[in-house]
Amino acid sequence: MKATIVLLPGDGIGPEVTSAAVDVLNAIAVKHGHDFTFQEALIGGIAIDKTGTALPDETLRMGESADAILLGAVGGPKWDNPTAAVRPEQGLLRIRKHFELFANLRPVKAYPVLAGHTPLRPELLEGVDMLFVRELTGGMYFGERKEQGDDDFAYDTEYYSVPEVARVAHIAFRAAQGRRQKLTSVDKANVLAAMRLWRRTVVQVSEDYPDIALDHVLVDSCAMHLITRPASFDVIVASNMFGDILSDEASVLAGSLGMLPSASLGAGDIGLYEPVHGSAPDIAGQGKANPTGAILSAAMLLRYSLKLESEAAAVERAVEAALAAGARTADIAPRGTPFISTSEYAAQVIAGL
Question: Are residues 220 and 263 part of one domain?
Answer without folding.
Answer: no
